[in-house]
Specification:
Layout: H1 6-19, H2 24-31, H3 35-42, H4 50-60, H5 73-88, H6 103-118, H7 122-142, H8 148-168, H9 172-189, H10 192-209, H11 212-225, H12 232-251, H13 255-272, E1 276-278, E2 281-283, H14 285-299, H15 304-313, H16 322-338, H17 342-355, H18 357-362, H19 364-376, H20 381-391
Antiparallel strand pairs: 1-2
Helix pairs in contact: 2-4, 5-7, 6-7, 6-8, 7-8, 8-9, 8-10, 9-10, 10-11, 10-12, 11-12, 12-13, 12-14, 13-14, 14-15, 14-16, 15-16, 16-17, 16-19, 17-19, 19-20
Length: about 400
C-alpha cells in the first residue's frame, strides 16, 4: 500500500522527466512503456504497476522509492541480491578466469555504482552488484601488471557498494565479509589513501557489534599510519577517519575523545576547503558539520543542545550526497524529539525521506522516532500514521 495518491506519483514522474529534459514520447522510448500509459500516469488517472514504475525509474535514473514512497520492490531486489553477493565473494582469492567486460567498460560501471551508493539508490545497486562484483574480482586476478593497482581500486569501490546494501539491510555477517574483501583488495593497491578509506568503512563492523572501544582503537591506528595531510586527498582521507573516530567516541560515551577528533576533523575540513568525494567518501566543511550533529546525538539526550545549535545556524546544501543529507535530518529528528520539538522532528523526517527515501526507510532510528511521535504528537496524526506505515513501524 502506498501513502501517495496516483496524482502525487504522476506529478513526481513528470517533474523528474522535465528535469531530464525528456518529452513524454522520449520517456516512452527510453522506458519501453507506452506513451498512453505515461500520459495517464502523469495526470494521475492511473496508478503505475511495480513493473511500470521500475521501468520509468530506470529511464529517469532514480530509485523507484523516489517516485512512490510505498514502493517495496527495492527491498525485494536487495534481499534477492544478498545470497548472490555471498556466493560471488565465497572464493574471491581463487582465480576464475577473465571478466566478461573490458577494463574501460568495467571502470564506467564502477563509477556509476559509486554514484548510486552516494545517492542511496539501493534498488539499482542490488540489480547490478552481483555481476559487477563477479567481474571486478576476476579482473584483479587477470589484469596485467600495469593494471593491477587500478583493478584492485575498482574492486574496493565495488565491494563497498555491496556492503552499502548489506549493512543498511542488517546483513551484518555479509557486510563484515565484504569489508574483509575490501581490505584484501586495498592491500593490493599499495595505496595508503585507499587503505585509509577502507579503514573508514571497516568501522561499520564495530558499530554493528557495539564494540566502540575496539572501533576507536582501529580508527586511531589507521590515523597513525595515514599519509601526512600534504595534499587535498590526503587531508580528506585523514579528516574522514577523524570524523568517524569522533562518532564512535560519542557512542562509547567519551566526550573528550569525541571533541578531540572533531577538532582535528574541523581543521582538516578547513584545509580541504571544498566539499567533495574523495575515494568514495564525502569530506569537507559541510561533512564535518553533519558529523557534529552525529556526535551530539551519539553522546545522548544530555547533549541535544549541541545538535540543535548546528541546525539553527546551518543546513546541508543540496550538492551534498543524498545519503549524507538524509543522515543529517534523521539525526536532527532524534535530537528534536528528545528536546520535545515533535513537530520539528516530523518535518526533519520528511526532509530526510525526500533526500534519500530508502536510506530513511531502513534507518533504525527513524522507526524509533516515528513510533515515539505517533504516541505523543497528535497534531498531524494521519500523516504520521502514513509515515509510520511506510517505514514498517506499525
Amino acid at each position: 500500500m502506498s501513502a501517495d495518491s496516483p496524482r502525487e506519483v504522476g506529478e513526481r514522474i513528470a517533474a523528474r522527466r522535465r528535469a531530464r529534459r525528456l518529452t513524454q514520447a522520449g520517456l516512452a522510448a527510453a522506458s519501453h512503456v507506452s506513451y498512453a500509459t505515461i500520459r495517464a500516469v502523469e495526470r494521475g488517472a492511473r496508478r503505475p504497476s511495480d513493473e511500470v514504475l521500475e521501468a520509468l525509474a530506470a529511464a529517469l535514473e532514480v530509485d523507484a522509492t523516489q517516485l512512490r514512497t510505498g514502493y517495496v520492490g527495492t527491498e525485494r531486489r536487495v534481499h534477492h541480491a544478498l545470497p548472490a553477493l555471498s556466493a560471488v565473494i565465497a572464493g574471491y582469492d581463487i582465480p576464475q578466469g577473465p571478466p566478461s567486460r573490458e577494463p574501460g567498460e568495467l571502470s564506467a560501471a564502477v563509477d556509476e555504482m559509486v554514484g548510486w551508493r552516494l545517492g542511496a539508490q539501493y534498488g539499482r545497486i542490488a540489480a547490478e552488484i552481483p555481476a559487477l562484483l563477479h567481474d571486478t574480482i576476476r579482473y584483479v586476478h587477470t589484469a596485467q601488471a600495469a593494471e593491477q593497482q587500478e583493478a584492485a581500486r575498482m574492486l574496493v569501490a565495488t565491494a563497498r557498494a555491496g556492503d552499502a546494501i548489506a549493512f543498511k539491510y542488517r546483513a551484518h555477517d555479509l557486510s563484515a565479509r565484504l569489508i574483509d574483501l575490501m581490505r584484501w583488495a586495498a592491500d593490493r593497491t599499495s595505496d595508503p589513501l585507499v587503505q585509509a578509506a577502507t579503514a573508514y568503512v571497516r568501522t561499520e563492523t564495530f558499530f554493528a557489534a557495539r564494540a566502540h572501544a575496539l572501533g576507536l582503537a582501529a580508527l586511531e591506528q589507521a590515523i597513525d599510519v595515514a599519509p601526512a595531510p600534504s595534499s587535498r586527498s590526503a587531508a580528506a582521507a585523514r579528516g574522514a577517519l577523524h570524523m568517524r573516530a569522533a562518532v564512535i567516541s560519542g557512542r562509547g560515551g567519551d566526550v573528550a575523545g569525541a571533541d578531540t577528533h572533531l577538532t582535528h576533523a574541523r581543521r582538516l575540513g578547513d584545509q580541504v576547503a571544498r566539499e567533495g568525494v574523495y575515494l568514495g567518501t564525502a569530506f569537507g566543511p559541510d561533512s564535518v558539520r553533519i558529523h557534529e550533529v552525529s556526535v551530539a546525538v551519539s553522546l545522548g539526550p544530555d547533549h541535544v543542545d549541541r545538535a540543535l545549535r548546528v541546525a539553527t545556524e546551518w543546513k546541508p546544501p543540496g550538492t551534498l550526497p543524498a545519503e549524507r543529507r538524509s543522515g543529517f535530518y534523521i539525526e536532527l529528528a532524534r535530537a528534536q524529539e528528545w528536546a520535545g520539538l515533535r513537530a520539528d522532528a516530523f518535518e526533519s523526517l520528511k526532509v530526510a525521506r525526500a533526500a534519500a527515501p530508502q536510506h530513511t526507510r531502513e534507518h533504525p532510528w527513524v522507526r524509533e522516532v516515528a513510533s515515539s511521535l505517533r504516541r505523543f504528537h497528535r497534531a498531524d496524526a494521519e500523516s504520521l500514521s502514513h509515515f509510520a506505515y511506510w517505514i514498517g513501524a506499525v
